[in-house]
Design goal:
The complex is a heterodimer of chains A (294) and B (271). Chain A is mostly helical and 294 residues long. Chain A is built from 14 helices and no strands. Helix content of chain A is 75%, strand content 0%. The chains are: A mainly alpha (294), B mainly alpha (271).
Chain lengths: 294, 271
C-alpha cells in the first residue's frame, strides 16, 4: 500500500463512526424539523410543513422562557468559572505541600457524574435535614428554614454553583497549563522594580493569558449551553419553569409531548446558537493570535 | 508582619478550597454508611453500617446489573473509539492529506453540537430497529460523543512525538505500518492510555442518552440514581451508597492520570 492510500485508509474507521453517529443523525433531525410528527398520533412522519415548527418557536412562551433561563445560566456560570479558575491557577502555581494536595484533589469534581452532583446538592440543600441548609441556618439565623430549591432565584443560583463546582477545577488545570508557558523573566524584573502583586497579575500575566482564557471561555460556554443533567436531578426544571434550560425543554418537548418535528426544530435552533457563539469566539481568538505574532 | 499574613492567608485559602471540593463528596460517603434514621440527622456520631450497600445490590434495586451495564457500555465504547481514533490521529498528525484541515475541522466542530439534537433521531431510529433499552444502542450514541474528542486528544500527544526515529526507521526500509506499530504506538502509549481513561469517564457519567434510551435492561449507574426517588420520597442513604459505587472507580482512574490530565487537551486547544 502506498503512503497516499494509507493516509486515507487510516482515516476511514474514525470517519465511518463520525458519519454514522453524528452526521447522519444531524441530517435526519434537520429533515424532521420541517415536518409535522406527533408521535402520540402517528408512527411515521406526515408531510412537510415548511418553516411552521420554527415559526411556532418564535411565539411559544415555554421556549422563550428556556432561552432566557439558558442565557442567565450561561453568562453567570461562564464568568464565575473562568474568574475562579484563573484565580485558583494563580494561587496553585506556587510550590508547596498544601498546593500539591489541592491540585491533586481538584481532579475529583470533574470526574464526578454531573447527575450525581445534582443529587448530592439536592440532599445538602434540603430545608429539613440538608447539611448546608441547616449549617447556613445555624450560622445565619435569618436563613433558617429557607426553602432553597423552592425559590426560583435560589434554585438558579444553586444550579450555577453545582456547575461551577464541576467545571472550575478542570478549567483551573487549563489555566495552569497556560501559566506554565508564560515566561517568568518579565515578571521577576517587574518584581525587582517594586511592582505590586496586583500590577504584576493585571499588567503582565493576564495579558499573556488572553488566548488561554478565551479557549476556556469557549469550552465552558459550549458546555453551559448543553446544561441538562443537574437540571433533571437537582431542580427538575422548577420551581415552575424557572430552571428549564433549552436542552431540558427540548428534551421535554421530545419525550413528554412526543412532538418530534417541533423538538427537532428547537434542537436545531440551539445548535445554530452554539455554532454562532463558537464562531464568534474563534474569530476573537484568531485576531488575538495575529496581534500576538505581529 | 505583612509577609506573615500573606503566608497564612494563602494556606487558609488553600484549606478552604480543599474543604469546598471535598465536603460534598465526603458527606455523600458518610451518608452511604449511615442507617436510614441517621441519614436524616446531621450527627457525625453514628454507628457505621454497610446495610445500604447490601440493600442497593438486592431486589428491587439490583445495582449489580447497572454496574455491569456501565462497565460494558463504557468498556466497549473505549475499545472501539480509541483504536479508530488513534489511527485517524496519526494520519492527521503525519500526512499532508488533501483537505486535511477541513476534515479535522469537521471532526472538531461535531463537538460543538448539543447532544439533544442527535438524541431525537437516535431515539426514532432505535425504536424502529427495536434497539431501545439495549447496551448496543448506548455504545453507539456514546461513540458519537467521545470519538471526535479522542481524535483531538491523541493527535495532541502524537504531535508532541518527534518524527526523527520514524524517518530513520523508514530509511532503513521499515514499512509505515511497522513504524506505527513498533515506534509510534509505544511512544504514544501514555497519551493513549490517558485518552482512554478520559473517554471511559465521559461514557461512565453520560446521563441524557441513557435516561431516554434505557428503561429496564440497559440502565446505567447515573440513570439508576433517579430510581431512588420513590413515592416515599428520596431515599438518600441508598442514593449515597449508589453514588459511592459510581464515584470510586472513576476517582481511582482520575487520580491515576492526574499528571497528564490536561496536557493533551490544552496542547490541542492552545496551539
Amino acid at each position: 500500500m502506498n503512503e497516499r492510500t494509507l493516509s486515507y485508509a487510516l482515516l476511514v474507521p474514525a470517519f465511518v463512526i463520525v458519519i454514522a453517529t453524528t452526521i447522519y443523525p444531524l441530517a435526519y433531525s434537520f429533515v424532521t424539523s420541517f415536518r409535522e410528527w406527533d408521535l402520540t398520533k402517528q408512527l411515521r412522519p406526515s408531510g412537510f410543513v415548511g418553516l411552521q415548527n420554527y415559526a411556532h418557536a418564535a411565539t411559544e412562551s415555554g421556549f422563550q422562557n428556556s432561552l432566557w433561563v439558558t442565557a442567565i445560566f450561561v453568562v453567570t456560570s461562564v464568568i464565575l468559572t473562568v474568574v475562579l479558575a484563573m484565580s485558583l491557577a494563580l494561587l496553585l502555581r506556587r510550590t508547596g505541600r498544601l498546593h500539591t494536595f489541592t491540585r491533586i484533589i481538584l481532579i475529583l469534581p470533574f470526574a464526578m457524574s454531573p447527575a450525581l452532583i445534582g443529587v448530592s446538592y439536592r440532599f445538602m440543600f434540603n430545608p429539613e435535614f440538608g447539611v448546608l441548609a441547616k449549617g447556613l441556618g445555624a450560622v445565619f439565623p435569618a436563613l433558617e428554614g429557607t426553602p432553597w430549591l423552592a425559590n426560583p432565584d435560589l434554585a438558579m443560583a444553586i444550579l450555577v454553583i453545582t456547575d461551577v463546582w464541576h467545571w472550575a477545577p478542570y478549567m483551573t488545570f487549563m489555566c495552569l497549563g497556560g501559566l506554565a508557558s508564560v515566561p517568568r523573566e518579565t515578571e521577576e524584573a517587574a518584581r525587582i522594580d517594586g511592582a505590586s502583586n496586583l500590577r504584576i497579575v493585571f499588567g503582565i500575566i493576564l495579558p499573556q493569558m488572553k488566548g488561554v482564557l478565551l479557549v476556556t471561555a469557549v469550552l465552558k460556554t459550549i458546555f453551559a449551553l448543553k446544561m441538562f443533567d443537574q437540571v433533571v436531578t437537582l431542580t427538575g426544571g422548577g420551581p415552575g419553569t424557572s430552571t428549564e434550560t433549552m436542552a431540558f425543554f427540548i428534551f421535554n418537548v421530545g419525550f413528554e409531548w412526543f412532538d418530534m418535528g417541533y423538538a427537532s426544530a428547537l434542537a436545531w435552533i440551539l445548535t445554530i446558537i452554539t455554532m454562532v457563539i463558537s464562531a464568534w469566539y474563534v474569530r476573537m481568538l484568531l485576531s488575538e493570535r495575529k496581534m500576538a505574532t505581529a | 508582619m505583612n509577609k506573615y499574613i500573606a503566608y497564612w492567608g494563602e494556606r487558609a485559602l488553600l484549606v478552604l478550597i480543599s474543604v469546598v471540593v471535598l465536603f460534598p463528596i465526603g458527606w455523600m460517603f458518610l451518608t452511604a454508611f449511615k442507617k436510614p434514621r441517621d441519614a436524616y440527622s446531621l450527627s457525625l456520631n453514628f454507628e457505621p453500617t454497610v446495610q445500604n450497600f447490601v440493600t442497593v445490590f438486592s431486589d428491587p434495586w439490583n445495582l449489580g446489573s447497572m454496574v455491569l451495564n456501565s462497565v460494558i457500555v463504557a468498556g466497549a465504547t473505549v475499545a472501539i473509539a480509541v483504536p479508530c481514533a488513534s489511527l485517524a490521529a496519526y494520519s492527521f498528525s503525519r500526512f499532508r492529506v488533501r483537505g486535511r484541515k477541513f476534515l479535522f475541522f469537521l471532526i472538531l466542530s461535531t463537538q460543538f453540537i448539543p447532544a439533544v439534537v442527535i438524541l431525537l433521531p437516535f431515539f426514532l431510529m432505535f425504536r424502529s430497529l427495536g434497539l431501545l433499552d439495549t447496551r448496543v444502542a448506548l455504545i453507539i450514541v456514546n461513540l458519537a460523543i467521545v470519538t471526535p474528542f479522542v481524535i483531538w486528544m491523541i493527535k495532541g500527544f502524537i504531535d508532541a512525538i518527534p518524527t526523527d526515529s520514524e524517518e530513520a526507521a523508514m530509511i532503513d526500509g521499515a514499512s509505515r505500518l511497522r513504524v506505527i506499530k513498533d515506534i509510534v504506538l509505544p511512544m504514544a502509549a501514555p497519551g493513549i492510555l490517558t485518552s482512554s481513561i478520559f473517554c471511559f469517564i465521559l461514557t461512565w457519567n453520560e446521563f441524557m442518552f441513557a435516561l431516554i434510551l434505557s428503561r429496564r435492561d440497559a440502565v446505567t449507574l447515573p440513570v439508576g440514581l433517579v430510581s431512588f426517588r420513590t413515592e416515599r420520597g428520596d431515599l438518600w442513604e441508598l442514593m449515597s451508597a449508589a453514588g459511592v459505587m459510581i464515584t470510586v472507580p472513576i476517582f481511582i482512574m482520575a487520580l491515576l492520570i492526574q499528571k497528564h490530565f490536561t496536557r493533551g487537551m490544552t496542547a490541542g486547544a492552545v496551539k
